[in-house]
Design brief:
The chain is α/β, with parallel strands linked by helices and 419 residues long. The chain has two domains: 1-55 and 102-132 and 198-269 and 360-419, 3-Layer(bba) Sandwich (FAD/NAD(P)-binding domain), CATH 3.50.50.60; 56-91 and 133-197 and 272-357, 2-Layer Sandwich (D-Amino Acid Oxidase, Chain A, domain 2), CATH 3.30.9.10. 32% of the residues lie in helices and 26% in strands. The protein has eleven helices and 20 strands. The strands form three sheets. Strands 4, 6, 7, 8, 14, 15, 16, 17 and 18 form a nine-stranded mixed sheet that branches. Helix 1 packs parallel to helix 8, helix 1 crosses helix 11 and helix 5 packs across helix 11. The radius of gyration is 21 Å and the shape is globular. It starts with a strand and ends in a 20-residue tail after the last helix. 49% of the residues are buried. It binds flavin-adenine dinucleotide. Residues 12-18, 35-38, 42-45, 48-51, 53, 225-226, 254-258, 277, 279, 312, 353, 355-356, 378, 380-386 line the site of flavin-adenine dinucleotide. It comes from Martelella mediterranea DSM 17316. Keywords: Oxidoreductase. Its EC number is 1.4.99.6. One of its GO terms (cellular component) is cytoplasm.
Length: 419
Amino acid sequence: MKDQSEADVVVIGGGIIGCMAARYLVEAGRRVTILERSAIAAGASAGNAGILAFPEIVPIPAPGITWKAPGWLLGPLGPLAIRPAYAARLAPWLWHFWQASSRASFERGLKVQAAMMRLAVAEYETVRKDARLASFIVNTGTLDLYDSEKSFAAAAPGWARKREAGFDFHRVGRSEIARLQPGLATQFEHAIYSEDGLQVSDPAGFTRALAESLREDGATITIGEAAAIEPTDAGARIRLADGSVLEARTVVVACGAWSKTLAKSLGEAVPLDTERGYNTTLPATAFPLKRQLYFNDHSFVVTPLKAGIRVGGAVEFGGLDLPANFKRAEALLTLAKRFLPGLETEGGERWMGFRPSMPDCLPVIDRSKAAPNVLYAFGHGHLGLTQSAATGRLIAELAGQQKPSVNLENLRFDRFSGR
Ligand SMILES: Cc1cc2nc3c(=O)[nH]c(=O)nc-3n(C[C@H](O)[C@H](O)[C@H](O)COP(=O)(O)OP(=O)(O)OC[C@H]3O[C@@H](n4cnc5c(N)ncnc54)[C@H](O)[C@@H]3O)c2cc1C
């Protein structure tokens, strides 16, 4: 790559967050280059479940979670796993996670997520008005299933908070569940149905179509790996792994789970880690799936996508370098077969993705202190697709020195530094 000292904005990372940030920056009249090391939608944005999970405002670190989590860790292929080789490195993240589960942090996190989701709903409406993207967003409705009266009752306070935040849904019983999704095992007596439930029919295709629409609107997509960033008088300088240099007035770091290294190159420590998730995409003929199904007591989802039926979820802490353990994807398929007895489990394609996760499960949307023309947009964990358009709006507001639509105080990169 040759030097391009004229760049206006460089967005590093061509996942859904980087592409949405680019979308709003282009709309604001900026000349945008997306710098992606591999290909558009090369990371978590390629294989996620495609759910626009707007009602998911209840933070995962909740009071009492530290008593529940050890139980989830018991089975080697259960909903939560820590790879032994990674356990020591995870300790600081877990410490912050535990702190985030205090009542005060939980309540604060819930308010922040509710504000983010309100913006997410509004901004996705604008995305739906773009004819190049509209067809990717479909309304299938969401069925949240619970194994027992006890687990349904335990989830009730969370649903009450979602209702307070303005989300609409209703409780359904056995016969309604069977109508909403024929072929489910009869054990499910309690569920919540959200008729408005939206999803993206093809997460990778959506991100690529978005990138293509940006190209049509004048953005440039460049392949190259950012290795470090440093401040300059006029903006920031990006040093690439191939030795070349790129200068820009504004730089956006949107490298998902890989963003930490670039923040570190500016001397800014961020406790970002990755919650690895697994899935299998089965042929569309594997099951007559009508809508997205959340199996809440087992931490996995089944979604009908253009590519087929995607069965996935769970969380594995193992960093960015350890090899995938696809037994986890198989374990989820086995569970799915138990709950959808007619599911054909042959012929699937397995995938592992790196959720970019902060300990309080809130993203980082902020301005670097070391280099004020560098903006951070990463750490969206389980909700990056859902919050991508909202993040794009907020990044464009930060870049334009406007008042952000959401108070960003709790999304600061240094919120764990004890300032
Ligand atoms: C199994 C699973 C299911 C999920 N389901 C959902 C869901 O249903 N709904 C939802 O809202 N969210 C879901 N998520 C979360 C969502 O996928 C992520 O939060 C989101 O994709 C993160 O987007 P991103 O752009 O930040 O990161 P990524 O998509 O990982 O993109 C980062 C990009 O940066 C590039 N990059 C990295 N380092 C550099 C560098 N140094 N220089 C240049 N480029 C670089 C990478 O190649 C990559 O393309 C799921 C995640 C997983 C793993």
